[in-house]
């Protein structure tokens, strides 16, 4: 009937999986918002359980709604598991010789957690929406000559390799963001992971995946995609230079030299 989702018409089972997973994520989000208002609930693990359920619901909805074949959905879901395994291995091997953190280190780690959580939520929101509504939209009718069905991405119909690059870059960024959020929920997980820079590596990989998805999906010309990567590299280089200058100016010796120079000029 008119108004029915295309996915429901083409693949009813996949649409039901997407619908129920998305509904579970939505209800779990509402429950988490309600639990945040209660100080008693904040001291228990109920909020963490609701958030984890929410994130797994999003993973299922993304895997079911962003692709049309089972193998691709399995690959997309396996990315999240691979990220979690990597973080665990990284933490185990890079924190063997570290002692207990000091109160100053714990405070610094908690501040870094807020920044990482902000980036992860923003990236997850962008990539989830981009995965369900790919660039260029989807086909509205079947094409018997090419074998494409209604609901297939238009970008896949015109440029299969470019769509494949977009899909996997976007999926990597989405799964990395979800894995980051899951790890950042529990302090026993994110504190050693942040201290060992495991989450920093995941954040950097997620950012490059987001850049790759944008470069592959926003244009149909290779030259323009290269320009986007070059622009991103220039921006990262400028940020790195500014960060180094900021850190150098924060050193005590540097400040003393500046005062000496000012005193001599007078």
UniProtKB/TrEMBL annotation:
It comes from the Eukaryota. The keyword Transmembrane applies. InterPro entries: PGG_dom. Residues 2-68, 108-219 form the PGG domain. GO terms for cellular component: membrane. The keyword Transmembrane applies. Keywords: Membrane, Transmembrane, Transmembrane helix. The chain crosses the membrane at residues 17-36, 45-63, 75-96, 116-132, 165-185, 197-214, 226-247. Pfam families: PGG. This is PGG domain-containing protein. It comes from Aegilops tauschii subsp. strangulata.
